[in-house]
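In the current project phase, work has continued on tokenised descriptions of protein folds. One protein thus recorded appears below exactly as we store it.

——
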Amino acid sequence: MWDRLQRRPLLTYFVYRALALTWAFAPFQVYYLQRRGLSLAEAFDLNVVFSLSAVAFEIPTGLFADRRGRRVSMSAGGFVMALACLLFVVGRSFWTFAAANVLSALSMALSSGADSAYLYDHLTSKQDLARYARLEGWSTAAKGVGNLTAVLVGALLYQYVHPASVFVLTGALTVTAGMLALTLPETRARHEGQISEHLSRAVNVLRNDGRLLAVVSFGAVSFVLLRLSLFADQPHLESHLHRNWLQHTVLSMGALAAAKEVGSALVAGGSGWVLQHVRTRWLAIGLGVGLVLAYALMGEDHGVLCTALMVALASSFGLFSPLMRALMNRLIEGPRDRATLLSVEGMGRRLLFAAVSPVFGRAVEASSLHTTFTGTAWVAALAYAVLGVSALLSFRAPSVGPVNPAPRSSRPSAVVTAAG
């Protein structure tokens, strides 16, 4: 079905996704920052810097990808991440690490949205949208395999070579990814237009499309729960390690991170089949209920079960990312402002994370990790309940008509119904 010319861009794209690391140093970041003199609260404060920066960059980078091309945006993200890694290596103060987080956020904003839009546009041009969900899952799996390899190698480098080595490794791989992205063919025409036109259309779409707004809200709440579990790993894992194992905490964290990436890659690889055979609303409900139960169980401190739940939460990213991208891409009518709208979705989730992260970090320091997990489970349950009622009302509301002048696709697979 796919000849050589059609396969090569996809293969190159998957290799790019494997090398475009955005998480390789995250399992060791808290250790590294504390080694450089920062407290646990300050480490969580850097999450605020990162998230607010990502929010600020989301719309401009989405516009950049829509106006100047997806591959250029993806390539720039790789080079900017290398600069962030350089600041992590030389940094000695909170503000230097804050600047590194700003650059990391810019790198992620340049790549996130643009990479998904590139894949969707490529498939649209080949009239093979039926395979989109499966290929999006494979794309996430490729990223997981890249992170898995980098985490395993990074843990060894951190423990036996130098703590900064993991950032050197990440920088080298992301530069390679940036150069590789430039070899990809651009699959769509650039839209010059006025920036105000892009923003106006994106705002109108979200304001008038209750289905799309419900998806964005669900993604924000779920992302916060998944992301918080990753940054709580260090104190959580230490509470379950015996005295002798505490001397090898970094290697234990590396092994845990590797298990997470394996789980995420396996789940992502099968997410395409799941999305084709299970209604998306049931997937969303199952994910929400699972997240609440996981936090409630971790709040009870069940030893080995907590470690298994940490892996399960991270593995859920393998379903969460393809699910959100499939829902967003298929609900967006026309490719013109696709990257901009995907950036709006990313902006919403990171803005909520920026608000929650410092509260979570200080709650851990003020009480205990397990008490904080239990409280988060109750808050999450309430948020999902409110979101569920709002989504039900919006899905039953009459349509207000199209808000995007782009023509609706004639292929039924390009549109997701409200029932999911």
Q: What stands out?
A: Residues 40-68 form the longest helix (29 residues). The CA atoms of residues 121 and 218 lie 25 Å apart. The chain has a mean pLDDT of 75. The domain at 4-185+207-397+410-414 is CATH 1.20.1250.20 (Growth Hormone; Chain: A;).
